[in-house]
Amino acid sequence: MSDKNITDKDYLFLSSLLKARETNMITRDRLERMLGAGSASEAARQLAETGWPDMTGMNAQELDAALSAYREALFQEIGRYVPEKEVADFFRLRYDYHNAKALVKGEGAGVNVDGLLSQAGRVAPEKLREAFQENDSRFIPAVLGQAMDEAKGILARTGNPQLADFALDRAYFAEMAELAGKVQDPFLDEYRRILVDCANLRICVRCLRMGKDGEFLRLALIPGGSVSYQALAQGTFSGEGLTALFSGTPFQKAAELGMEAAKGGPLTEFERECDNAVARFLSSVRMSGFGSPLVVGYLAAEENNITAVRMVLTGLLAGIEPQRLQERLRETYA
């Protein structure tokens, strides 16, 4: 735990609340029943019976807005009760950097991106936009402000939005490490490492698939994983490549599938196994009595559930065959 004299007992109320909710969390069986409902409205009705917002009859844009509001309410609730705000901020980070990427690219392309900004981050979108436009980062997290400035400069010099994204991605994971360090929870730090490994494995596969060189890979890789970015930069293009590098890790099977995808095979199975490896790691805390690991597992699971619900409902709405959607389903926490 952190150096603020916070113990697992401080998490007792929140842990009890979340443990009570676990019995009603979305399972793969429930998602498959939704897929068999026959329509998006009927699937949404089934979901509403479990305590989710009633999204019956909504179009794709309305569904997205409802799910975004659900996420924002979740973060606000957890933020009120969690003894260490860094645990909730760990998940909010993603949306700060999503917003930062949108603002940088929007300015570069001369388009308004207000409709793309999320309210789920630590920093209100309006405040982040103001800091970006006025080049004044005094009132937002320092790492985020510096990363936006760096990304803006890269885009201005190179015209390459991908290189600008790399700068923001490195800052995102650096802030993630900083927050995990403040909490001093081994589980949260291990989860961070898992996320870095997952991101780096995907980066390597895409570089191989697109025929990028080692210099591009070094620019894209993120420090801080259990497989060092130096080892990845040196070993991806040689010998057994990713299979050897990720041997004995949670991503061993994903790396094997990644090597097939890198040769031109389909990405779907590789991407699914990457997500499943993360889900299997998180499921290890389901039986935890109480403490920050349970909160981390719950928040991560709900994020994955939001993604799965969006895919199922918008997919059915678009007329995609349920079997095709079922093939994309990931393992669930519950």
Protein described:
- The chain is mostly helical.
- It has a domain at 82-184: V-type ATP synthase subunit C domain (V-type ATP synthase subunit C fold, Up-down Bundle), CATH 1.20.1690.
- The chain is built from 16 helices and no strands.
- It has helices at residues 12-22, 28-35, 40-48, 60-81, 85-109, 125-133, 142-158, 161-183, 186-210, 214-220, 229-235, 242-245, 252-262, 268-282, 292-317, 322-328.
- Helix 2 runs antiparallel to helix 3, helix 4 (60-81) packs antiparallel against helix 5 (85-109) and helix 5 packs parallel to helix 7.
- The two termini are 26 Å apart.
- The mean pLDDT is 92.
Structure summarized in a few sentences:
This protein is mostly helical and 334 residues long. It has helices at 12-22, 28-35, 40-48, 60-81, 85-109, 125-133, 142-158, 161-183, 186-210, 214-220, 229-235, 242-245, 252-262, 268-282, 292-317, 322-328.
